[in-house]
Each structure stands twice: as C-alpha cells, then as structure tokens.
Amino acid sequence: MDDSTTPPPPAARVAHLTKTYGSTDNPVRALDDVSLSIGRGEFTAIMGPSGSGKSTLMHVMAALDAPTSGRVWLGETEITGLGDTELTLLRRRRIGFVFQAFNLVPTLDVRGNIALPIELDGRAPTALERARIDGLVESLGLANRLTHRPHELSGGQQQRVA
Description:
- The chain is α+β, with helices and mostly antiparallel strands.
- It folds into 2 domains: 3-82, P-loop containing nucleotide triphosphate hydrolases (Rossmann fold, 3-Layer(aba) Sandwich); 110-161, no CATH class.
- Helix content is 31%, strand content 18%.
- The chain has 5 helices and 4 strands.
- It has helices at residues 54-61, 84-94, 110-120, 127-139, 155-161; strands spanning 12-21, 28-38, 69-74, 77-78.
- The chain has a 4-stranded antiparallel beta sheet with strand order 2-1-3-4, with helices on one face.
- The longest helix has 13 residues, at 127-139.
- It starts with 11 loop residues before the first strand and ends with a helix.
- Pfam families: ABC_tran.
- Keywords: ATP-binding, Nucleotide-binding.
- This is Peptide ABC transporter ATP-binding protein.
- One of its GO terms (molecular function) is transmembrane transporter activity.
C-alpha cells in the first residue's frame, strides 16, 4: 500500500461527546452527542449563539474539563481516561492556549512569558525549539519587545506573545 495516499490522522477529534452541568433535578446539557474531527493544518471556526456549548467543547477538547460521556483524542492519543498528572503533562507539552484575557505573567518580560511553558516542564528549550521561537518572535514583530513587560505592550502585541 502506498502511504502517500493515506491521510494523516486528525489533529483532534471527539466522538459522541456529552457534557452536563448542574444537579440531577435541573441538569443543563451543554454538549449533546457531538462528533467532530479537525484535520492537521485546518482552520476551524466554532460558531453559535451564546450558551450553545462552544466554550465547553473547546475546554473538553483541550483537556481543561472532562466530558460526561463520549471520547476525545489529541492526534492519535485518546485523552478521555487520562489522570490529572498525565493531562497536565499533555496540556503543557502538546496544547497551546490563547485566552481572551491573555494571562501573561506581569512580572515577566516577553522572553520570560514565551519561555514559561518550557520552564514549567522542568527543562531548557532544545536547539530546535529555540530556533522555532526565534523565528516566530521575528515573524510576529516582537524581536524589539523581548525585554518589555506586558503592561508596556499593546493589546495586539500581548496577544501575539500569548
């Protein structure tokens, strides 16, 4: 079989995902049998009215919240049954988050905020990671801001750091 015709596995997918909040007397079903696959390199918009489950779906897919039922994969790794320690490592090593509030550490400069996830992982960046970070910093127009703290940056610059 020619592997070049085999599509790569999805970057993320969920199957029959359900998430219910609240008490048994007054449950709120935020997700109801959702199945979704997102391919590598794909741009995907999750749209819907307020309260339709968009944030819940993203939180479950990013392992920030657990589903009530259903399954979640990141790449080829099923994350549904992973424990807290495994989920922490997975989030730290494989998922990037950009929140509406950028959540930058105010006492760290741009360089420190960029390096923080790797430092939290208890290691120094590899040469490949340093080269990738340097390339991203340059392409995002942040090279002249590396020693600035978040309060010294515009909102757009803070978002690019995040």
